[in-house]
Amino acid sequence: MVKKEIVAMILAGGKGTRLGALTRKLAKPAVYFGGKYRIIDFPLSNCANSHINTVGVLTQYESIVLNSHIGVGSNWGLNTSKGRVTVLPPRETEQGGEWYKGTADAIYQNRDFITSFNPEYVLILSGDHIYKMDYSAMLDFHKEREADATIAVIEVPLEEASRFGIMNTKEDGTIYEFDEKPRVPKSNLASMGIYIFNWKTLNEFLNEDARDLGSHHDFGKNIIPKMLGADKKMLAYSFQGYWKDVGTIESLWEANMDLLKENPELDLYDSNWRIYSDNVECPPQYVAQEAKVSNSMINQGCNINGEVTNSILFSKVYVGKGAIIKDSIIMPEAYIEEGAVIEKAIIDSGMVIERNSRIGDSTGEEIVLMSLKEEDNNECFNPQEEFISPKEIACICSV
C-alpha cells in the first residue's frame, strides 16, 4: 500500500433508535436528508473536499442500503488510483470475531486496515451529523501545535451543554478535563465527535483499552479520559459554522427546515464546497397549472398538482389535486392522494397517504412521522379525516 499522511475512519454502525420507525430497517447514516441526500453524504463530501482520499466506513446495524449507497466511493470522486472508500463491517479473523462493542473497539478491530497505509494521523468521524467542514485546516492546526489529539468543538447554549460531552480548556485551547453530559457544565464547548490522533499514540491506547475488561471501549468514556490522565497534549479545535446532530425526529425535521430559511447557515448551493450523492435517474419535476409551490425544495421526478408550502420533497413524489403540504418532509416515491392535508410531518419513502386524510397539525409542538409498519402480519392502518394525535410518531400506512 502507498503510505498516507492521514486516513479517515467514519463510524456509521449505530442504530439511531431515537429516529423511531425511520431506522427500524435502515442505518441512521443512510436516512434521507435535504431533498436529495443521505446523512452519510456530508462526512464523505467533507473528506473529498478536504482532499482526504483514503476513507474507511465502519458499518454494522442494518447496513445493506448504506453499503450499496457508498459502494467504492465513486459518487464522491474517491475511487481513484490514489484513494478509495472501503466499507468495514465486523469480520471474523484467526483470533475470532464479534460485533463492534463501542466506537474505540470498532477502530481497534480495523487496525490492520489503518496500518496498511502507515499513516501519521487518523481522522475519526461520526457518520450521522449534518455539517460542512474543512478537515485539512484542522489537520494543519493539529500539526502546528504538535498535539497528540485534537478534538473539534462547537459552542452550544450553556443551558443545553448537559446534553453533550463538554471540553474544559485552558486559555490556549489545551484540554484539561472532559465531562460526559455534566449536570453542571463548566463550559459550553461541546465535542462534535470529530477527532485527529497521532496514529502511533492512539494505537497504544486502543491496545490498552482492549485489555481492559471493564471498559466501554468508547472514545468519550474511555480513550479521551485515559489520554488526559496520561498527560497527552490534547487540544480543542473551535468550529465556526452549521453543525447538527440529527438524532431525533425533531432535530431531523428542524435541520431540514433550516434549509428553507432566507439565508440558511448550511448552503447546499455553494459550488466551492459541494455535497455529493447518488444521482437518481428520473424525468424533470412537473408542476401543474393549478398547483401552488412556495419556499420549497422539489427534487426530480416529482408530479405536483396540489399546494406545497415551506416543505422538502424528495424524488418521484406525487401530490394529487387539492392536496396541501405545509412545513413537511416528503421522502422518495411517496404518493399523496387528492385532498390530503399534511402539516409539520415527515412522510417516509414509499408511503401512500390516502384521499382526504389529515396528517399533523402546524400549531402543535410534536412532529408526526408516517412510516411503514415493521411487523410480520403487514397489516395496514389507514389514516382518515379524524386522524391523528400529534404525539403519535410511528403511524402506519403501507403501499
Give a verbal description of the structure:
The protein is an alpha/beta fold and 399 residues long. It contains eight helices and 28 strands. The strands form seven sheets. A seven-stranded mixed beta sheet has the order 5-4-1-6-11-8-12. The protein has a five-stranded parallel beta sheet with strand order 14-17-20-23-26, with no helix packed on it. A five-stranded parallel beta sheet has the order 15-18-21-24-27, with no helix packed on it. Helix 6 (199-211) crosses helix 7 (219-229). 44% of the residues are buried. The record marks 60, 99 as: Could play a key role in the communication between the regulatory and the substrate sites. Alpha-D-glucose 1-phosphate binds at residues 100, 165, 180-181, 191.
What multimeric state do the chains show?
single chain
| Number of DSSP helical runs | 8
**Helicity level, as a percent range?**
10-25%
Taking the sheet with the most strands, its summary is: 7 strands, mixed
Q: Catalogue the unreliable spans.
A: 373-399
Principal-axes geometry comes out as: globular
Helix- and strand-based class? Answer: alpha/beta
What is the alpha-carbon Rg in Å? 22 Å
Instruction: For the record, give the distance between the C-alpha atoms at the N and C termini, rounded to a whole number.
Output: 48 Å
Q: Please state how the strands of the largest beta sheet are arranged side by side.
A: 5-4-1-6-11-8-12
Mean pLDDT: 88
